[in-house]
Amino acid sequence: MAVTLDTDFVRQQFPAFQEPSLAGQAFFDNAGGSYACQQVIGRLDQYYRQTKLQPYGVHPASRAAGQAMDSAHERLAEYLGVLPQEVHLGPSTSQNTYVLAQAFAKRLQAGDEIIVTNQDHEANSGVWRRLASQGIVIKEWPIDPVTGQLQVAALEPLLSPRTKVVAFTHCSNILGQINPVAEVCAMAHAVGARTVVDGVSYAGHGFVDVPQLGADIYLFSLYKTFGPHQGLMVIRQDTAQFLGNQAHYFNEAFIHKWFVPAGPDHAQVAASAGVVDYFDALYAHHFPAGTPGQKKSHAVSGLLRSAEVGLLQRLLDFCQHDPRVRLLGPANVAERAATVSLIPQNHSVAEVAQRLADKGIICGGSHFYAVRLLQAMGLDPDAGVLRLSFVHYTSEDEMTQLLEALDAVL
Questions:
Q1: Which residue numbers delimit the Aminotransferase class V domain (predicted)?
Q2: 42-277 adopts what CATH topology?
């Protein structure tokens, strides 16, 4: 029997929904950053109040600080199906990919190949393209210029024995297209390449089983998954060993420090465990007890997805049948996440975004760091797109508010 998300219970876990200054405002800018759950806010408050000192020392408060940070790695790893030492927390996904690219540059030789796409957020594209100055061959897996989608058939001829990295996105932050990660990873591995998968636009709709996907590196932003402003990297053990320590030489024994050369934000790392606290609360409220961690993760991810599908269908139906807007990305709800980008036909993106804001709709108008994608589709990045993004805590009433506001402003 299908389990229905208890939206009232969910919204009780997010202080923003009780915030007077946000009353009556419908939040449709989640792809830029979600609301933080109470569990994260509580852990952050606790850390700053009780353990805001150097962690891993001899004082009880210092030991507690270190234990809170370790717990975050352990609990996030459980939900992602990996080892705690494979979870690395840095200041942002953009910073994390930069560190990764520099690490790979030390291990690659001139003539080695890296495949990137023009569908990605620039964070998982530009850092790799810059390695061309060091003799690395950069190949682009291009989108279909009409649909903006990536086709697996277009990747195959780019792969060769010299391919060392395939960097691509799990889900486009403009189109919402969900790419076949497991299939792409298998193709890359067949020629000996490693995969770097940007999961930023996907993870807010449910954490993934990283081993099941086959990704060597999987990245996403915790501030888009109801947490603090941290970037999470899963780097599988063999890939971490291949890349080596990127931080202080005397931290060689601490693998979770290898890819955070600036050092961690102690409080935010500790607070990251609150995301899993929230998922645990969701599971306990909706499902029987006693299920092992990874199955729990699958159940929660399925619950989040099922809550979004009905609302997404309503928005897609509006966009498909209204000539005043152009829908970007797949029209089929099964092929996409709840991130919907539109081109207004009779008004500028900026004008529509402002009019929606005046009606209590929080959304965005921009290129959202996917400049290459818009250019490849013949769209003006400076004009941008109107992006409407939501997650499982969005209500039916808020979707109605959005659709009525869209109809009025268009």
A1: 27-238
A2: Aspartate Aminotransferase; domain 2 (3.40.640)
